[in-house]
Amino acid sequence: MLSKRAKYAIKTILFLKDRPEGKPISAKVISENENIPYKFLENILRELRTHRLIKSIRGSEGGYVLAKDPSEISIAQIMRIVDGPIALIPCISEKFYEACAECEDEQTCRIRKMFAEVRAEMVPILERPITAMDKEA
Amino acid sequence: MLSKRAKYAIKTILFLKDRPEGKPISAKVISENENIPYKFLENILRELRTHRLIKSIRGSEGGYVLAKDPSEISIAQIMRIVDGPIALIPCISEKFYEACAECEDEQTCRIRKMFAEVRAEMVPILERPITAMDKEA
DNA sequence: TATTATTCATACCTGTTTGATATGATATAT
DNA sequence: ATATATCATATCAAACAGGTATGAATAATA
Question: Which nucleotides of chain D does any protein CB come within 7 A of?
């Protein structure tokens, strides 16, 4: 399941996407409009910034704007930043690889094979740009 | 990410699938062969049994066997039994539906729309029979 | 230049979940 | 009877999730 962090992060990105470029949006405004606890949101915003999904402008009249075109942002990117791996098991994650404790031979592990396939089919779904996902039905 | 419960459960199902039918396999044997903590495994086995994925034979020479043909068992089934919802957000889960606390109108929620689509594409991947997933490359 | 609005950084707290163990009862083949 | 199993419930420690607190740094503007 998606964490609240991830959900809030996605909401935030969508919110920024909707605003006219250039004019930064403050954490306060995002927090109030999207019902996200202010301080929690600040943490999330920082993560999104350090990973260059958004840019921040400090001081009065400051705030946040997208750091790239929304067509270059995907759910997968956001999830990886705030939640970590997308892969269902760590031993097949590309960005967050970790060996399984009990696994004796990774090369012949059947579970691994199965989930490598699952991952291969799942990642493209999550890597579509949010501009393609977020439209009217 | 997949929980250890789910991983152990899948390993267990695969293990049982490999054994000749009829002859029950004890928790001890599964535990030793698959490196699963014995008592933890017992819990998992009970869950799998109450959900009719496996059958148990009590007493000496007892153990466990699959309750249905492996072609009728999917990763999705196993995950739902031991981990709960597959959907990334609860408001689109069919078997484990739950409203989002902060959501004002579910019908118009953009996040929900996005993840309904994700779910629709993801579920079929996980619902394939394990017999189709678990084969040589 | 003082004030105000803001981001930035770090640390902390609390409840829940996860992974696992403990204890003991019940059933059955031999 | 005894050994080998499952079955049931309760408990526990560590990790994690969600959220708060405190305060410093920065910049527009009155």
Answer: 3-10, 17-22, 25-29
